[in-house]
Amino acid sequence: MYLRLGDLDKAIADDNSALAQTDPKEGADSADALYLRGLAELRKGLQSQGHADLAAARKLEADIDKNYASMGLTP
Fold first, then answer.
1. 37, 17 Cβ separation under 8 angstroms
2. What is the dihedral of CA 69, 29, 12, 54, to 10 degrees?
3. Three-state secondary structure along the chain?
4. 34 near 54, Cβ under 8 Å?
5. CB distance 67 to 27 below 8 Å
6. Domain locations in the chain?
7. Is residue 24 within 8 Å of residue 53, measured between CB atoms?
C-alpha cells in the first residue's frame, strides 16, 4: 500500500518487518516482501539494494515479475 502511495520509507519499513517475521526459506511470503522492498528501494534510488532484493525474490519465486506486473508493479 505504501509503495503505491509513494511513501517509500514506510514501504521499506513494512517489508523489513514482514521479512523479520518470516523464514526466508518459506518462499512466497519472503519473495513478496523482498520484491516489494526491492521496488521501493529502486524508486528511492537505492539501485544495488533494490536489484539484490529483486534477484533474491526471483530465486524464491520464478514468476514474481509476471505476478506483480499484472498489478501494475514493475521495476
1. no
2. -50
3. CHHHHCCHHHHHHHHHHHHHCCCHHHCHHHHHHHHHHHHHHHHHCCHHHHHHHHHHHHHHCCCHHHHHHCCCCCC
4. yes
5. no
6. 2-69
7. no
Residue 35 near residue 51 (C-beta atoms within 8 A): no
Show the cell assigned to 63. Answer: 514468476
How far apart are alpha carbons 20 and 24 in whole angstroms?
A: 9
Give residue-wise pLDDT tens across range 12-52: 999 999 998 887 666 667 999 999 999 999 999 999 999 99
Calculate the dihedral angle through the C-alpha atoms of 43, 47, 53, 54, rounding to the nearest 10 degrees: 70
pTM listed for this prediction? 0.91
Which residue's C-alpha cell is 521501493?
40
